């Protein structure tokens, strides 16, 4: 039951809040940017969302002044709260960061009211003062609820999509391994035939079939092993600088590159933190393909890895490029490159593969909010690319920004304590 709807102090405090709404919005933005390692310009990246913040302050003030002004689902501010939940999901926030965002809002508003209440000469009982505080935090909680619900709804849809992708991937891998095992068993049985065993050429052909299929199975299992190392929880991922991930892939592929006579060049890569398991998996597939399909007719064969960051409308994007001067990709095969089991060079002698590598790259990158594609605007060779969203403070530093500290400055600590 609400106490004293027509509280004169509540009305005066609400007027103070409306008058300071721009300053309160700025403080809230600073607190969020300091806590979530997000560029301040991306906290509310559109004019519509930026305009929403003062509206939110007004609606909280209205409810604090008069509880009859309930914040309901049909209010414009709720629509913006839903939009904010969708934005935070696309930016890679965790659910606890959504909750923290509104906790910070409550702290900013409460600290402001604490400073303002002694400046107002209005009679007020202790029960009325407590009722004002209750209405303030109830208003913040209602808005938080709608943002969080939208975020969780989108997160649940993403989980369902990933589960379906995993089931599809399991079916694909099972099919591939079953065929490979069948080929190995068939070749092994034929090798036991006395007539074949006595023929060196036929024996060598079936022995090669066993080896090639076993190598293909090993490749599939290695991809599976890399995938199991990835964790979709950003707080548990093993993040490393991009140059370190690229160097690790070069180490893994050193013998393969040397045996093929291919030189690998790592150009200046931005010092952006990346998911080690995901990026190494993708680079291994891109670079090993470039090495496999190097052009034996060339005196110099090379693979070059480069990267850059670019600003998009929805934030910073890391782009990694793997290019080579190899055989290239036939024009008729380019549209199917990232299709499962598709091999653009299925007839190249001595090169075996499962046709899974590029599809795994695509699924892995898309699962992290990025994309994978190929470009063929060069007269020779190929260029394979992947992009990932930049979400960490180190990413801002890599592109020339200043990373935010782990907490606010000035009166932030007081505001946070007041809201806890």
Outline the secondary-structure elements:
Layout: H1 8-19, H2 21-36, H3 40-43, H4 47-65, H5 76-90, H6 95-117, H7 126-191, H8 194-197, H9 200-229, E1 239-241, H10 242-252, H11 254-260, E2 262-266, E3 273-275, H12 276-292, E4 301-312, E5 315-324, H13 357-367, E6 371-375, E7 382-389, H14 393-398, H15 412-419
Parallel strand pairs: 2-4
Antiparallel strand pairs: 1-3, 4-5, 5-7, 6-7
Helix pairs in contact: 1-4, 1-6, 2-4, 2-6, 4-5, 4-7, 5-7, 6-7, 6-15, 7-9, 9-12, 10-12, 12-13
Describe the structure.
With 420 residues, this protein is of the alpha+beta class. The protein has two domains: 8-157, Globin-like (Orthogonal Bundle), CATH 1.10.490.10; 233-402, Histidine kinase-like ATPase, C-terminal domain (Heat Shock Protein 90). It contains 15 helices and seven strands. A five-stranded mixed sheet has the order 2-4-5-7-6. A hairpin with a 6-residue loop joins strand 6 (371-375) and strand 7. Helix 1 packs across helix 6, helix 7 runs antiparallel to helix 9 and helix 12 (276-292) packs antiparallel against helix 13 (357-367). The chain starts with 7 loop residues before the first helix and ends with a helix. Mean pLDDT is 78; it is low at 1-5, 231-236, 345-351 and 392-420.
